[in-house]
Amino acid sequence: MEEEKDINLTLEEIKMPDNAYSELKEGEEYKPILMGTKKYPEINAWTVIWGIIMAIIFSAATAYAGLRFGQVFEAAIPIAIIAVGASTLAKRKSPLSENVIIQSIGASSGVIVAGAIFTLPAIYIIQETNPDIQMNVNFFQIFLASLFGGFLGILFLIPFRKYFVSDMHGKYPFPEATATTEILVSGAKGGNQAKLLVVSGLIGGLYDFCMTTFNFWSETITTRMAAWGEQLAMNHKFVFKMNGSAILLGTGYLIGLKYAMIICAGSFLSWWFIVPLLGQYGVTPDGVLMSTMDPDLIFSQYVRYIGIGGIAMAGILGVIKSAGVIKTSLSVAFKAGKSKGTEEQQVLRTQRDIPMKIILFGFLAVIIMMVLFFIFGGMQMNLTQIIVGILVVFLFAFLFTTVAATAIATVGTNPVSGMTMMTLILSSFILSAVGLQGGTGIITALVVGGIVCSALAMAGGFITDLKIGYWIGTSPYKQQGLKFLGTLVSALTVGAVIMLLSKTYGYTGENALVAPQANAMAAIIEPLMFGGQTPWILYIIGAILAIVLDRIGVPALAFSLGMFIPLQLNIPLLIGGALAWFIGNRSKDEAVNKARKEKGTLLASGMLAGGAIMGVVSAIMKYAGADVAMPTEYIGSSAYNILAIVMYVAICVYLVIHSMKQKTVEK
After folding, report:
1. Cα 308 to Cα 283, 284, 419, 531, 653, distances in angstroms
2. For the chain, what is the largest distance between any 2 Cα atoms, rounded to a whole number of angstroms?
3. How many CA atoms lie within 13 A of 343 on its CB side?
4. I need a labelling partner for 455 at 20 to 30 A (CA). Which of 93, 237, 291, 328 fits?
5. What does DSSP say about strands 241-243 and 220-222: parallel, antiparallel, or unpaired?
6. Cβ atoms of residues 220 and 114 within 8 Å
């Protein structure tokens, strides 16, 4: 371990700089909490051991929750809370610098889990639904697909770190990074801010816990609660619905009104225009009138594919527009890699990345391991297919890395499933053209998709860690190096959990695993490998829409995200963003507005954190059979639905009133 000098910060020094969340004026510089000219404890036995423990625990918990209930929990926030609690109990001298590293290692869990469970369980699903298809999947295929993808995501993102976290400072909201940073800083500082964070976390956590675990009130507020709303849905295919969780309300506050409006505009187009239009005049390829279909079914089977096409085209447009940025970033990284020792020492600790020559060696090592994997991993691929497979992985991982990072920086949501669907479609088409079909083709395409999915999930999650480190003043090269360790631990854990759960529960029959994303991947790839219909026209419509939006100046990625993500997950973002605007604009004194907005940010961060960590507790309770649901006759009743509205209004009022109590800037 590297020995570093302990630097104890005073309470006055442990605070976010005034320009942390705003764009820098000409000549203005951002100075993090931890000074770049000094060294702080970062890599030691405490941070590495706790980071590994967090990676194991949350890889298992999020994999279970994602496969069993269809919900993948963001691990960064709960890990930050646990790290703060552990450092407080242990009375660590430099908790802030250490906790960033613990969080960075442990947060590998959530992204590796998402990359794995979105794709690889589709092999089991196809096998169960088509027992005649000969397919075998083993632990090493799942483990290595997750590992290679995670490594590629890290390697591809490092050259773009400076652009996303520094050059674009204040231009992206980084909602999850903001929440996690506030937790780490408040936890290190203690006092009123820490207490406020704990209280809001308890409120948000208990609120979500009572709603999701005990079913005291409905999780979804919808017009279908009433008879007239159900009629409106079936006759006119019009539905209003929103998820009432504290997590989404807090996320919306952190995103802000601007981006929330763009996301919801896409959602409104899907749900309130296209779905009703198809419901009146649409006919399925099988000749079924869509007027007989449920609006949710119209969306899931048809309209969301327009969003996928939009996401893919937005990614392509983003790559084209970012060509200059990519070239500049890579050029800077290459120059930094060629710098001599004396020149390298002149670079501040907070600005150093892993040298470019090491990144290139990393890419070479991954290529060699992938070739060996494709030859000896039971994939039954010839030389041409191996070369094509590797090219497909690197092409899509590279093209969509910046898209994933931009999405996380903008809205806190990584459209990894949409991008992976597009990858699966195109890669399946390409691989089948070089002779890979049937069961072998399915396994190969899903492994390739799993690698790309893990790479994109890692790129999106890792940019959050690097932004947290940038705000606080962590050494980027240390975060980057330890991220490989977190990826290895998480890939090992998730591989074992997927195998265990797939064999224990299965994906068909009573009490089966839900795995919605993997089911969607299975539905997409089966017709491609065995012949069938692919919704190309819907993908093309989405692509054309993205081009039009881009031409008129509307962010196509955020809009397309809204079209793809279900309505109930988008409307809460708009409400949270509207509350942020209201709180930050009520006073004539700009200083008071800023103080109120910052207090609201702390409250929203706490609510988001509390909801996330109690979600993990809820999943564990359900696994242990300890959850207690309300009587069947109560669920779905008027009281059940009305209470949902009352409680949601109450938590919104709590956020507004407590933020508005702030009259001056807190010292």
Report:
1. 21, 19, 7, 21, 36
2. 74
3. 7
4. 328
5. antiparallel
6. no
Give the span between the Cα atoms of 395 and 389, in whole angstroms.
Answer: 10
30: amino acid identity, one letter: Y
3-class secondary structure, 219: coil
All residues at 6 or more sequence positions from 531 whose CB lies less than 8 Å from its CB, including other chains: none
Count of other CB atoms within 10 angstroms of residue 168? 16
State residue 283 phi and psi, 5-degree precision. -135, 135
Count of CA atoms in the C-beta half-sphere (13 A) of 456: 36
CA–CA dist 60, 57 (Å, integer): 5
Per-residue pLDDT tens for 427-484?
Answer: 777 877 887 766 677 788 888 888 888 898 898 889 999 999 999 989 999 999 999 9
| Integer Cα distance of 567 and 237 in angstroms | 13
Other Cβ atoms less than 10 A from the Cβ of 509: the count is 8
Helix (H) or strand (E) holding 660: helix 638-660
Cα angle at 619 between 485 and 496, to 5 degrees?
A: 40
pLDDT tens, position by position, 185-217: 877 765 566 677 778 889 988 998 888 778 888
Per the CB < 8 A criterion, the answer to whether 121 and 502 are in contact is: yes
Q: How far apart are CA 554 and CA 572, in angstroms?
A: 21
**End-to-end CA gap in the chain:** 37
> What are the phi and psi torsion angles at 308 (to 5°)?
-60, -45
Q: Kindly state the percentage of the chain with pLDDT values over 90.
A: 20
